[in-house]
TrEMBL record:
<dbReference type="Pfam" id="PF01738">
    <property type="entry name" value="DLH"/>
</dbReference>
<dbReference type="InterPro" id="IPR022742">
    <property type="entry name" value="Hydrolase_4"/>
</dbReference>
<dbReference type="GO" id="GO:0052689">
    <property type="term" value="F:carboxylic ester hydrolase activity"/>
</dbReference>
<feature type="domain" description="Dienelactone hydrolase">
    <location>
        <begin position="213"/>
        <end position="271"/>
    </location>
</feature>
<dbReference type="InterPro" id="IPR053145">
    <property type="entry name" value="AB_hydrolase_Est10"/>
</dbReference>
<dbReference type="Pfam" id="PF12146">
    <property type="entry name" value="Hydrolase_4"/>
</dbReference>
<dbReference type="InterPro" id="IPR002925">
    <property type="entry name" value="Dienelactn_hydro"/>
</dbReference>
<dbReference type="InterPro" id="IPR029058">
    <property type="entry name" value="AB_hydrolase_fold"/>
</dbReference>
<feature type="domain" description="Serine aminopeptidase S33">
    <location>
        <begin position="64"/>
        <end position="179"/>
    </location>
</feature>
<protein>
    <recommendedName>
        <fullName>Serine aminopeptidase S33 domain-containing protein</fullName>
    </recommendedName>
</protein>
């Protein structure tokens, strides 16, 4: 496993003067190389946890596979995470996409990066951001991969998350009563947020990926987990397939069987305490397939 100390620490200036912190991992034996930029998911954790905690594995796995396939890999923390400036809790998804566009512009200026061979990969909420990059900043990227990124709205995803939580706690029968109330609460919150920002949710509750996926303009992979408790396959995969049918660029949908939201082996409704926290073979397979597709077919 390659360590953070073997990567190049980078500081990337945003258009408003803020700085995002990252690490660039480079394949050996090449003067210049294609690049994959990873977009992190929700929350304020740093990607550096993958090198500090054994049960964090997602970024480590991506780095290892990308380097094996001859791609450089850039990991970068969002605003307020790790050593990055700013506060992600005051950003919409569009703001995060704009930040990543600034990151891409910076990387395109490097002589060791092939400017026309930069792709983006995002997991979970990062998948939503990748979808925005593929539809709004298509001139900056060659291809995109959304891993367990929802195909519907934030309100729908949060409602499904609540349903899963109730089921896993043994309250399946209560769900049919609680969920309509919860969805009504979120809808009211969204309405109020158009006038007053009352916290992080005020910046993201109005987002719906339906308005984005159907306008994707770069070759795109959408990957879903078969036993995802946060982004249910049965709701998102058919919708994603229908939305992608409207785009005019190469696209693929991949389903990884027997894995959870983090692409670890899991049955449906199993908690992290009940499974082994390590990457499934499906995660490595997905990354290999995407890098080879990007290199050979896109």
């Amino acid at each position: 496993m390659i360590g953070l100390e073997q990567a190049e620490a980078v500081e990337l200036k945003m258009s408003d003067g803020m700085t995002l912190s990252g690490h660039l991992f480079k394949p050996e034996g090449l003067a210049s190389y294609p690049l994959i930029v990873f977009v992190t998911g929700s929350g304020g954790s740093t990607y550096e946890l993958d090198w500090q905690e054994e049960n964090f594995y997602f970024c480590r796995t991506l780095v290892d596979i990308c380097l094996e396939e001859g791609f450089a890999m850039l990991l970068v923390d969002k605003r307020g995470a790790g050593r990055s400036d700013g506060n992600w809790k005051k950003q919409s998804f569009y703001d995060r996409a704009d930040d990543m566009a600034d990151v891409l512009k910076s990387m395109r200026q490097r002589t060791d990066i092939l400017a026309n061979q930069i792709s983006v990969v995002g997991h979970s909420q990062g998948g939503w951001i990748v979808q925005l990059l593929a539809s709004h900043h298509q001139d900056l990227i060659k291809s995109s991969l959304s891993i367990a990124g929802p195909a519907y709205s934030v309100i729908e995803q949060m409602t499904d998350n609540m349903e899963t939580d109730l089921i896993m706690r043994g309250y399946r029968r209560l769900a049919k009563w609680i969920l309509p109330l919860y969805k009504s609460y979120l809808t009211s919150y969204k309405t109020i947020s158009k006038v007053w920002k009352l916290g992080y949710l005020s910046y993201i509750l109005d987002y719906d990926a339906r308005d984005t996926i159907s306008h994707i303009k770069v070759p795109t992979y959408l990957a879903f987990a078969g036993n995802d408790n946060l982004v249910p396959l049965e709701k998102n995969e058919p919708l994603a397939r229908e939305l992608l049918s409207r785009v005019k660029v190469p696209h693929k949908i991949m389903i990884a069987p027997g894995v959870n939201h983090g692409f670890a082996k899991s049955e449906k409704y199993q908690s992290w305490d009940e499974i082994e926290s390590k990457p499934s073979p499906e995660l490595a397979k997905l990354i290999r397939n995407f890098t080879r597709w990007t290199r050979e077919e896109v």
